[in-house]
Amino acid sequence: MSMELMVLAMKTHVGSHARKLVLIKLADNACDKGECWPSYQHIADQCEMSKRSAMRHIDKLVEDGLIRKEVRKGGIKGNRSNVYFLEREMLLSSMIQPTTPSDKLSLGVVSESHPPSDTVTPPPSDIVSPRTSHSLDPVKEPIKNKSKNLDFSVWPEMPSNQTLNDWLAMRKRMKADVTQTVINRLAPQLTIAFNKGVSVDDCLGECVVRNWRGFEFDWLSDEIKARGLGRLRANQRRSSDFELSGQITNHSSRKDVSLALQAGMPFKALPERHQNDLIGEWRAGRLRIELVSLLEKQNVLL
To answer: In the chain, how many domains are there?
Structure first.
């Protein structure tokens, strides 16, 4: 049993008291590396539910990225068995944010797992309290106001407003708060994807479509990775072209402007329209971080 994983499992929001019990059971069986291999029937017996329910809850935990399941064959008869791996990073990013320091677990679980509109009847226990309504304000906070309080500068670029709002809405629907820690922990994988030609917009779009709470570049399909590689090579060719021509007009796209700056074009050589757009986006905090770096090197943002 891993005490660290047990604590993380108890503090992780999964949207169902029965599913949380399954997660805690897996943590109880897991070693410090997060690996365990209990049978469906054993999990069902320990959690006092049917085998079918145990299978359904495990599939949902896999879908949410909280655990990973591998099917292994062993023995002369080739019997199949499931090996589970608890994803420590995803558990950390899905931890319940307590309302008060003195009530870090019970109040957080009640307020998020059992809001007034939840139709699931909680099991008899002492965690349900009249204080449930005290933590409803963060849940009802408008999505746009929520995003304004977050610093996205650690991301390689900003997604479109539509994709960002869809992603925030998906997280809210799954009762997974978007905190600054979540934004910071997503940054390394988003940067890996961006450097391989996959935009942040595409990454978050996949999260929305597949209901991913977290994100890793390796989760993307081969098709998306191949498309990103093709886009990256095309951008490299266009960047080389700009090194030769350096022609930017008022009608040039933002991508062309970015490539021109990356190829060494002075900011002051850009048409006034593009200069004003870049400065405006920087002041609004929406300018891509690599462009900020380029403009800082040219002493534009002093």
So the answer is: 3
Does residue 158 form part of some domain? yes
Average pLDDT over residues 240-254: 65
Whether 17 and 27 have beta carbons less than 8 Å apart is answered as no
User: CA–CA distance from 46 to each of 21, 24, 25, 32, 109 (Å)?
Assistant: 9, 11, 8, 21, 21
Q: Which of 93, 96, 91 is nearest to 112 (CA)?
A: 96
- Domain range for residue 88? 3-93
pTM of the model: 0.38
Residue 109 has φ and ψ, to the nearest 5°, of -65, -45
* pLDDT value of residue 145: 54
Tell me how far apart the alpha carbons of residues 257 and 274 are, in angstroms, rounded to a whole number: 8
pLDDT tens profile 177-201: 999 999 999 999 999 999 888 999 9
Residue 210 has pLDDT above 70, yes or no: yes
Output the pLDDT for position 205.
92
Neighbours of 122 (CB within 10 A): 13
Residue 198 exposed, middle or buried by CB count within 10 Å (0-12, 13-18, 19+): buried
In this structure, is residue 153 part of a structural domain?
yes
Whether the Cβ atoms of residue 10 and residue 105 lie closer than 8 Å to each other: yes
CB 111 within 8 A of CB 136: yes
* pLDDT tens-digit map of 56-111: 999 999 988 899 988 876 655 556 788 999 888 888 887 765 544 444 444 444 44
Return the percent helix, strand and coil in the chain, to nearest 5: 60, 5, 35
Same domain as 253, residue 215: no
Q: How far apart are the first and last CA of the chain?
A: 55
